Amino acid sequence: KPTKLPDIQHRFTDRHLGKSLAAREQFDLIPEAERSHTPESKLTAARLFYLEGRLDAALSELAALLHSEPDHAAALLLQGKILLSQSDLMPAITALTRSLQRDPTSMGGHYLLGQAYARAGDERNASKHLAEHEKLRSTRVLINRLEIEAACKPHDGAIRRRLVELYNSIGLFQQAQFWTNAAALNPSPRQP
């Protein structure tokens, strides 16, 4: 939870990143001395620069962030995305691979890495990561549908057990544990 005004402003800016002008206005309200005091504020700045098309500035922010936190998954993902857009394929592959080592459930990470491998001519790795992207995407679509169904049927333990299976299948173990606990609270009979 943010406790200082700059932290709150960074989070508000991050929420407006889809609208780069509104995000820039919010970001510019943050005093200069407070703009780069956390890794997340550096990531917010890099995302904003990316949306504005200022790729060198985004890469500079990311380099500073990764200097202090070399395994920051979101920073590595954005760095890889930018490098891929600049056709700097091997550094993009390195950044995206490192990002996926930290967050193997990233749909965007697998998609971008698959694209990078395809552009580099490595069809085997491209196919592997694009297939993983599709598995994660289709599983998450099913999860979203089942979570809505679970909300409508609060005493249906079977839905909750299926959610446990799905979350475990894509490596989201914390979410699987949540649904394990929910299923234990509402144990409907198992079907044969």
Features of the shown structure:
10 helices; mainly alpha; 192 residues; globular
Overview of this structure, please?
- With 192 residues, the protein is mainly α.
- The chain is built from 10 helices and no strands.
By secondary-structure content and strand pairing, the structural class works out as mainly alpha
Strand runs, count: 0
What's the alpha carbon Rg, rounded to whole Å? 20 Å
Report the average pLDDT across residues. 87
Helix content: over 70%
Sheet-strand content, in percent, reads under 5%
Order of helices and strands: HHHHHHHHHH
Distance between the termini: 45 Å
Which runs of at least 5 residues are low in confidence (pLDDT < 50)? none
Largest sheet: none
- Gross geometry: globular
The number of helices is: 10
List the helices and strands and how they pair.
Layout: H1 5-15, H2 20-29, H3 39-51, H4 55-68, H5 73-85, H6 89-102, H7 107-119, H8 123-152, H9 157-169, H10 173-185
Helix pairs in contact: 1-2, 1-3, 3-4, 3-5, 4-5, 5-6, 5-7, 6-7, 7-8, 8-9, 9-10
